[in-house]
Automatic annotation (TrEMBL), chain A:
GO annotation terms (biological process): branched-chain amino acid catabolic process
Gene3D superfamilies referenced in this protein's UniProt entry, alphabetically: 3.40.50.970
Classification of source organism: Bacteria, Bacillati, Actinomycetota, Actinomycetes, Kitasatosporales
GO molecular function: magnesium ion binding; oxidoreductase activity, acting on the aldehyde or oxo group of donors, disulfide as acceptor
Protein name stated in the entry: Pyruvate dehydrogenase E1 component subunit alpha
Domain Dehydrogenase E1 component: 73-348
Keywords: Oxidoreductase, Pyruvate, Thiamine pyrophosphate
Top-level lineage group: Bacteria
Disordered: annotated span: 1-37
CDD domains noted in UniProt: TPP_E1_PDC_ADC_BCADC
TrEMBL record, chain B:
Entry-linked PANTHER family: 2-OXOISOVALERATE DEHYDROGENASE SUBUNIT BETA, MITOCHONDRIAL, 2-OXOISOVALERATE DEHYDROGENASE SUBUNIT BETA-RELATED
CDD domains: TPP_PYR_E1-PDHc-beta_like
Lineage summary: Bacteria, Bacillati, Actinomycetota, Actinomycetes, Kitasatosporales
Pfam families documented for this protein: Transket_pyr, Transketolase_C
Protein's UniProt name: 3-methyl-2-oxobutanoate dehydrogenase (2-methylpropanoyl-transferring)
GO biological process, one term: response to nutrient
Cofactor(s), by name: thiamine diphosphate
Matches recorded under Gene3D superfamilies: 3.40.50.920, 3.40.50.970
Keywords: Oxidoreductase
Transketolase-like pyrimidine-binding domain residues: 21-196
């Protein structure tokens, strides 16, 4: 363009011809190429790369997947027995839940959504405490500082900016802490998803955003959620890398998350990870998935089950035999029996708790209302 | 207003001519002192750093404490407040600036679902010691979306404290108390009082009272004007004017809408037997509705007349050339006072 315009004949005294130049503020920006996700989701199981995987890690993942599957079954059963108000299952998504928990160090923070109780349990939280929200005896059943697990978050994606703020605060303080925030495919449409990713990239906060793309936001398929090439591609617009991974390949998810956590820890900034997985169960026990998806689709995913594909690998390599399988199943059964027993006990409720934690100190108005409830309870007791 | 011999501005100017301090300067000083005393206090928002805020309330803080302590954020209110929640989770005390009343609305979900509820949902394990500063109210000729009185939304949300200063002294004291509070405080700054002046001295700031105490600004015997924030000077002017009409008015400045200081308000109304609530916010389901109901419930046998309200009309905030018809003024307050059934007396 410039060459051509330089050959233009200008009459003497005329206004110089317009020579296109970039606007003054323009400067070359970050090269987007290294930020782009790979063309296909990363797989490790069934590929040559699996040879490099640590057998101890493979067995750990297996035991956790078996326990996770049993946990999902037990929690779903508890809804049928009226012990849980509702349960959003992660059956089929256990590889993501487990890998998220195992990718973090003890000092790191996990920011789960309401569907991610399994990740919290895999991180060490007592399942009864994890399920308090869904039983309904309180909102958060645990002290978030104890295992560094933020409260299970129901309003979609609103926990993502919290993860950014916490990671930013830790970095300002000089602490070596990473935050991993979990969200679903539907949650990526929320404004808070956008704002969190943008803040994280601007601040270079040590955060990993982990999207479990399980195909559906309740009933709405991904095609109605986004026109992006993939959810991982959204990272590029914020200036952070996007990674795509097979969400049912526990080894691959663990690898991608571990790398993203390490990158954040060494000051490399945030990463967006999209795991392609599938919600085998309905949205919750209150949902009917047959209204919006074909049974055949579910069956194709059952053939790609996270436990099935890991078990195949372990068996082929001689790392797992029938005894090993039985041991894993028994450990899971012990967990389930303990959970069942403790969830069958009536929770101890104190109605006066309603007023205990609204403010650090109760207002005069709340003291008055607490006295009213106290009197009502006393009257009930006398009746 | 009196002329000051000391004040932050005077100090900044050195030993030369003293200037009275403005409310904006007192607010700046409150943040500056809190930041100097407590390294966990962080100021953040849009334009708060290099520029010092569009009202210059954070002027100089980034320079003095660095951009990590006074941070220009991306332009996204939900993100600002959401990030502040995470920072508070890690032990910081964020002081967030929302640039204008109506620009705070994108942050409502974070405010209502997280800031206000976090202590409750975690049984006290995760308090939210953060301050959300919101310039609010009209009277500055602002165009659309720059003059809302949004206090009723905040008051209706359990878990939040809602505080608003009406004087330069209170701007300092209440903001210090808000930053020191272990609960989230929505700190409403009456923008038309930003440039009000007083001889308030930063060298000897008034003791910081706990949040939740109203104060009698003018003593009187005939009726109580209950007000706060930008309407306080209007009420004091109305009380002076009423004197000529033979009405001796008491003026109560609430200072804190939540917690609501029933004791001070009701003590005043029991003394005077009459009350008018005055605020810019809309009347229907506005703060005055709650206040009038409470005063009536608790002072019924002392009342000589129904509790009246002088409020903004129930309309979207008007364009600047019409706002004077909307805002409660001296005449409208005096009209209400006149309707307090004085004929029943004697």
């Amino acid at each position: 363009m410039q060459q051509r315009s330089s050959t233009v004949q200008e009459p003497p005294g005329a206004v110089p011809a317009y020579r296109p130049t970039p606007p003054p503020a323009w400067q070359p920006r970050t090269d987007p190429a290294p930020l782009l996700p790979d063309a296909e989701p990363l797989r490790v199981l069934g590929t040559d790369a699996v040879a490099d995987a640590d057998p101890a890690l493979l067995l750990r993942l297996y035991a956790e997947l078996i326990r996770g599957r049993r946990y999902n079954a037990q929690a779903t059963a508890l809804t049928k027995q009226g012990r849980l108000a509702v349960y959003p299952s992660t059956t089929g998504q256990e590889a993501c839940e487990i890998a998220a928990a195992l990718a973090l160090e003890e000092r790191d923070w996990l920011f789960p959504s309401y569907r991610d109780t399994l990740a919290a349990v895999a991180r060490g939280l007592d399942p009864v405490q994890a399920l308090t929200l869904l039983r309904g005896d309180w909102h958060t059943g645990y002290d978030p500082h104890e295992h560094r697990i933020a409260p299970l978050c129901t309003p979609l994606a609103t926990q993502l900016p919290h993860a950014v703020g916490l990671a930013h605060a830790a970095r300002l303080k000089g602490d070596d802490v990473v935050a991993l925030a979990m969200v679903g495919d539907g949650g990526t449409s929320e404004g808070d998803f956008h704002e969190a990713l943008n803040f994280a990239a601007v601040w270079q906060a040590p955060v990993v955003f982990f999207v479990q793309n399980n195909g559906f936001a309740i009933s709405v398929p991904l095609a109605k959620q986004t026109a992006a090439p993939s959810l991982a591609h959204k990272a590029v617009g914020y200036g952070m890398p996007g990674r795509l991974v097979d969400g049912n390949d526990a080894v691959a998810v663990h690898q991608v998350l571990t790398e993203a956590v390490a990158r954040a820890r060494r000051g490399g900034g945030p990463t967006l990870v999209e795991a392609i997985t599938y919600r085998i169960d309905a949205h919750t026990n209150a949902d009917d998935a047959t209204r919006y998806r074909a049974a055949g689709e579910v069956e194709t995913w059952r053939a790609h089950d996270p436990i099935l594909i890991l078990e195949r690998e372990l068996t082929e390599r001689g790392l797992l035999d029938e005894d090993g399988k039985r041991a894993a199943a028994e450990a899971a059964e012990t967990m389930a029996a303990d959970l069942r027993e403790r969830m069958n006990a009536e929770p101890v409720l104190d109605p006066m708790d309603l007023f205990s934690h609204v403010y650090a100190e109760q207002t005069a108005q709340l003291r008055e209302q607490a006295a009213q409830l106290r009197a009502e309870l006393d009257a009930e007791g006398e009746a | 207003m009196t002329t000051a011999t000391t004040g932050p501005a005077a100090k900044a100017a050195g030993a030369g001519k003293a200037k009275p301090a403005t409310m904006a300067q007192a607010l700046q000083r409150a943040m500056r002192d809190a930041m100097a005393e407590d390294p966990t206090v962080h100021v953040m928002g849009e334009d708060v750093g290099t520029l010092g805020g569009v009202f210059r309330v954070t002027d100089g803080l980034a320079k003095e404490f660095g951009e990590d302590r006074c941070t220009d954020t991306p332009l996204a209110e939900a993100g600002i407040l959401g990030a502040a929640v995470g920072m508070a989770m890690y032990g910081l005390r964020p002081v967030v600036e929302m640039q204008f009343d109506a620009f705070a609305y994108p942050a409502f979900e974070q405010l209502i679902s997280h800031v206000a509820k976090m202590r409750n949902r975690t049984r006290g394990a995760m308090p939210m010691p953060l301050v959300i500063r919101v310039p609010y109210g009209g009277g500055i000729g602002g165009v659309e979306h720059h003059s809302d009185s949004s206090e009723a939304y905040y008051m209706a949300t359990p878990g939040l404290h809602v505080v608003t200063p009406a004087t330069v002294e209170d701007a300092y004291g209440l903001l210090r108390a808000a930053i020191a509070s272990d609960d989230p405080v929505v700190f409403l700054e009456p923008k038309r009082l930003y440039w009000s002046k007083s001889d308030w001295s930063p060298e000897a700031p008034a003791p910081v009272e706990p949040i939740g105490k109203a104060v009698v600004r003018r003593q009187g015997t005939g009726a109580t004007l209950i007000t706060y924030g930008p309407s306080l000077p209007v009420c004091l002017e109305a009380a002076e004017a009423a004197q000529a009409e033979g009405w001796d008015l008491e003026v109560v400045d609430l200072r804190s809408l939540v917690p609501f200081d029933e004791e001070t308000v009701c003590a005043s109304v029991r003394r005077t037997g009459r009350a008018v609530v005055v605020h810019e916010s809309t009347g229907f389901a506005g703060p005055g509705a709650e206040i009038a109901a409470r005063v009536t419930e608790r002072c019924f046998h002392h009342l000589e007349a129904p509790v009246l309200r002088v409020a903004g009309f129930d309309i979207p905030y008007p364009p600047p050339m019409l706002e004077r018809h909307h805002l409660p003024g001296v005449d409208r307050i005096l009209d209400a006072v006149a309707r307090l059934q004085w004929e029943a007396q004697s």
